[in-house]
Specification:
By secondary structure, the protein is α/β, with parallel strands linked by helices. The chain has 11 helices and 10 strands. It has helices spanning about 35-40, 50-70, 90-105, 115-125, 165-175, 180-190, 215-230, 235-265, 280-295, 305, 310-325, and strands spanning about 1-5, 10-20, 25-35, 80-85, 110-115, 135-140, 145-150, 155-160, 270-275, 300. It binds 5'-O-[(R)-(carboxyoxy)(hydroxy)phosphoryl]adenosine and zinc ion (ZN). Zinc ion binds next to α4.
């Protein structure tokens, strides 16, 4: 089974062709990602209107490249998948409409993929991880601890009530004048700093639920920075180190609780899986290893290029759904908001493809 996947929910224009073989292992035939970071950097974050226009300009050639690299015509595909949300609606419309056009012209099934479901299933493409597993998804837009029970079967064990982890890194970087995206820059500064210099809070630590709250941490950091301004290079490094330590401690506490809830509700997970750009952070990665070890399970960390937004994860989620007959009608709507809980196994009958 071979599927084309299109991703345009944020600031990456991406397309990929992925195959699932008889033994059910996945193979990436092409994976083209065009990052728009340089177009948004001057604004310190993603500008939705700029993103949507950039997707329109780039997508046709990105899809063309993905097909060319996979060395196959559209006619050889078994389905066309696109992220139909959640995300910036302008970009989602561009990707989903393109997928619909290809599906219509080529008379192929359309799979409208939930972007979070695609992150959730990536470990099965890279590592063949069996269900059920615990997913820690931490990106610029999302922070969730999920029980992944099966395709279309997700339970949210915890999530952020305000900022996402990546967003907190980005805002910290902006506050300290480091640039965008902030995560890697804060991590670099932190490596030169003293994590104990500033006593920042560990919001939500010790709570019985597995939720996160990061906006208070950001405020505490701002107050500390204001107290000692103007900041020396060492001050910036110490603030970054103290911030990263606080986030790491919070992630450890929340994940321990999340896994406790997983065991109580579902049983033993097969693995702890991470996804999203934040998993690239070495301090946080260490915490993930430690929590997995404590729980006697493996940490599955797909390579960074597949943890961040890409087309291969959309194609793979498309394959998983298509294999179960879960396809969508050509009038399926793009969605800015689309919680994973709302992704159900409800199959759309393949009316227009019934003849073959
Ligand atoms: O998954 P991703 O590439 O895009 C989406 O947000 O969908 O994640 C990007 C986020 C940004 O907020 C970025 O600052 C954060 O991941 N990030 C990091 C690191 N690398 C990327 N955060 C902390 N440490 C890093 N090394
Ligand atoms: Zn994402």
């Amino acid at each position: 089974m071979i599927v084309l996947g299109i991703e345009t929910t944020c600031d990456e224009t991406a397309a990929a062709v992925v195959e699932r073989r008889e033994d059910s292992g996945g193979r990436i035939l092409s994976n083209i990602v065009l990052s728009q970071i340089s177009e948004h950097a001057a604004f310190g974050g993603v500008v939705p209107e700029i993103a949507a226009r950039a997707h329109v300009e780039a997508l046709d050639s990105i899809v063309g490249k993905a097909m060319h690299e996979a060395n196959m015509p559209f006619g050889a595909l078994d389905g066309i998948a696109a992220a139909a949300g959640p995300g910036l609606i302008g970009g989602v419309i561009v990707g989903l409409t393109t997928a619909k056009a290809i599906a219509l012209v080529e008379n192929k099934p359309l799979i409208a993929v939930n972007h979070l479901e695609a992150h959730a299933l990536t470990a099965r493409l890279t590592d063949g991880t069996p269900f059920p597993y615990c997913l820690f998804l931490a990106s610029g837009g999302h922070t969730q601890i999920l029980a992944v029970r099966g395709v279309g079967d997700y339970e949210r064990l915890g999530g952020t009530v305000d900022d996402a982890v990546g967003e907190a890194f980005d805002k910290t970087a902006k506050l300290l004048g480091l640039g965008y995206p902030g995560g890697p820059l804060v991590e670099k500064e932190a490596s030169q700093g003293d994590p104990k210099r500033f006593a920042l809070p560990r919001p939500m630590a010790g709570r019985r639920d597995a939720d996160f709250s990061l906006s208070g941490l950001k405020t505490a950091l701002r107050l500390e920075a204001q107290k000692i301004a103007p900041l020396s290079d060492q001050d910036v490094a110490d603030l970054c180190a103290s911030f990263q330590q606080a986030v790491s401690d919070v992630v450890m506490d929340r994940l321990r609780t999340g896994l406790r809830i997983f065991r109580a509700r579902i049983g033993t997970p097969t693995a702890l899986v991470c996804a999203g750009g934040v998993a690239a952070n070495q301090a946080i990665r260490k915490v993930l290893h430690r929590v997995a070890f404590e729980n006697g399970i493996d940490l599955v960390a797909p390579p960074p290029a597949l943890c961040t937004d890409n087309g291969a994860m959309i194609a793979w989620a498309g394959i998983e759904r298509l294999a179960l007959g879960l396809i969508d009608p050509l009038d399926v709507a793009p969605r800015a908001r689309w919680p994973l809980e709302e992704v159900t196994k409800a199959a759309h009958k393949p009316s227009s493809f019934a003849a073959g």
